[in-house]
Amino acid sequence: MKFGVHFQLGQIPGQSLTKLYENAIEQAVLAEKLGFESIWPVEQHFTPSISTIACPMMLLSAIAARTNQIRLGTGVTLLPLHHPLRVAEEIATLQLISKGRVEFGFGRGGLPDHFIHFGVNQSENRQRMIESLEIIQLALSSETFSYRGDYYTLENVSLSPGLGTYPIPPFRAAANSPDTVKQMAEMGYPIFCASHINPFPTISSLYETYQAHALKAGNSLEHLDFNLISPIYTAQSTDEIRSALNASLDNMKAVAIEKVAPVWPGVKPGGKNASHKPSIQEYIEAMSFERLNVDCALFETPARCIERLKTIQSELQLSRFICWFNPGGLVEHEAILDAMHLFAEEVIPAF
Asked: How high does pLDDT run on average in the chain?
């Protein structure tokens, strides 16, 4: 199993944006030295409390200039918000700069503000994503191509820059709903899920759905693989872990209540969902350190990390586990570096 590192770079008032980015680049450089295989910055807009990474490929270009081997993945590019030709140009440029290290992660997005401010109808996000995928694949694989779709009509397009001698990078979909999992399985795309969006039992169900629909569509599971992004932190004692994470997890909970709960699928005005179960806000408010650790995170000593990861790997047939060492955005930079060192030295060798 390969191991990656996930970045969100959430900001609270008073934090230096320059320092946030400097720290991320330093962490990426260290990740390569420690043997992590890949880096995956998110794409978010207009919500600095969640993330300040609006242009993940620009951040990856800076990381590419400081590294030599680590894979550079978008985690993920929100396709409905962009013209697909522009995305194809950026993929090709990063592939050239990095000498072939790109992993292209894509998704359709879910926060209403993204679509409102970019002037895109959110109800079209799935169709727009599929059309963009078709165009990007054509642009990267053809000397000249034309395309007629519902949203784009293109005539005799030649991408510049192209990929040169480098291959089309691997494509991978963010899939955190049953419908998207089914669609990507049928289309033959590898996927990743995020345990801070769906708890581990739900992800197990999504994996079963992925397998079943891939096989039904005639797609070999040997060519498809399943990745997982999870909040994680490791230290030699639970007390150390709590000390490093407490403020950050409180911030994570507050941001989730303010920004995520109101737009969660199925939630009606006032916070109650359609089935009259406890509101997502009530669920988030009840999330203790212990509950988070059981449901959606690995806040463990190295030995327990190994034990739990082996179980997760076996259940999901994981090919890559992507570590989010800074859930909530307030873990101190030095504490993140310490956790990365410990994870690389004591956990990764077990896999």
From this structure: 94
Beta bridge partners of 192: 174, 227
For the stretch 12-39, pLDDT in tens is: 999 999 999 999 999 999 999 999 999 9
Question: Under CATH, which architecture does the 2-245+297-350 domain have?
Answer: Alpha-Beta Barrel (3.20)
| Tokens 């586990």 found at | 321
Tokens linked to 147: 């395309």
pLDDT of residue 55: 98
* pLDDT tens by residue, 262-302: 776 554 444 444 443 456 677 787 789 999 999 999 999 99
Q: Cα(328)–Cα(248) distance, rounded to whole angstroms? A: 5
241 Cβ neighbours under 8 A, 6+ residues apart: 233, 234, 235, 299, 300, 301
